[in-house]
Amino acid sequence: MNFTSPTPQTHTEIFRGDSYVLNANYQQLADIQSSGKMQVDGAELYMIVYPGGPAGHLQVETSRLENGIMISQSALDDLGEEGFVKMLRFIDWLWYSDEGLMLTQWGVEGETYTLDDEGNVVLNSDIYYNGINPGASKQLNVDYGFGGGVFAYGGSEWLRFSKFTDAEKDWNQRVLENTEPQKLDPPIMADEMQKEEMNLIQVPLMDYVNQSALQFITGDLDIENDWDNYVSQCEAKGSQDYIDQANEIFEDTKDVLGME
Fold it and tell me: Burial level of 10, CB count in 10 A (0-12/13-18/19+)?
């Protein structure tokens, strides 16, 4: 298992069989599977569900959104109220309506995809997307401009699952059936000065946390013998100060958030 090499090198090691675990998203896995570069006879790639811990077998998500849209004041200044409202209506349609999401994800019905008798999306056989139709001569994003990452999130469960291969559907089903959702993290509405103060703690602290996590995984640190020292080092680097400041900011702003 390789933790630190850049992506091309880790892929090469997987192809040769020198590495057996890869941390990647499904697009990368699909690209590897369709590349034809695997050099180990009979080798298969399988997505494992992340392990649980003392707190249970929990899903990793703790936020409401993976991405979103931010609109600056200059949009209103440049467009005027009427133009600004038109822009909002277009954004609402493009990102949040069923019709807009189908267009940005799959393209034009009859040109890039069809619907079968059960209403499932069937991508044209000469178009490749995200592991679907490997070896096809065209790509949905490159040749048609649809299925791009900017529009790849959100929508109904049906739409999200429509773009998955059978392997990814299986993985998602295993996650949903075997893990529990976590409580959402509340937003920490820090002002600029508070953000700067917290970043001064967070950056070196997380560098140490990530380095130590790798050492625990590889065995350079022992979970039984070195854990207490690891916690002490985190506290020395300001972990409790960070927690206290985040909690203080939350207490001061929870009324704005409508939270108790």
Answer: buried
Residues in CB range of 46: below 8 A, 6 or more apart:
167
CA distance 89 to 96: 10
What digits encode the pLDDT tens for the residues 52-108?
Answer: 888 889 888 776 666 667 899 999 999 999 999 999 999 999 888 889 999 999 999
Count of CB atoms within 10 A of residue 217's CB? 12
DSSP bridge pairs for 123: 113
What contacts 24+ positions apart, CB below 8 Å, involve 7-16? Answer: 11/37, 14/38, 15/39, 16/40
- Banded pLDDT at 2 (limits 50, 70, 90): low
Query: In the predicted model, what is the mean pLDDT of residues 127-156?
Result: 86
| Phi (first) and psi of residue 122, to 5 degrees | -120, 105
Q: Is the pLDDT at 241 greater than 80, yes or no?
A: yes
The one-letter code for the residue type at 12 is: T
- Rounded to two decimals, what is the model's pTM? 0.68
Q: What is the mean pLDDT of residues 219-224?
A: 95
Phi-psi region of 257 (alpha: psi -120 to 50; beta: other; left: phi over 0): alpha
Coil, strand or helix: which one is 113? strand
Measured in whole angstroms, the distance separating CA 206 from the mean position of its chain's CA atoms is 19
Residue 232 to residue 237: CA distance in whole angstroms: 9
- State which H helix or E strand residue 138 sits in: strand 138-139
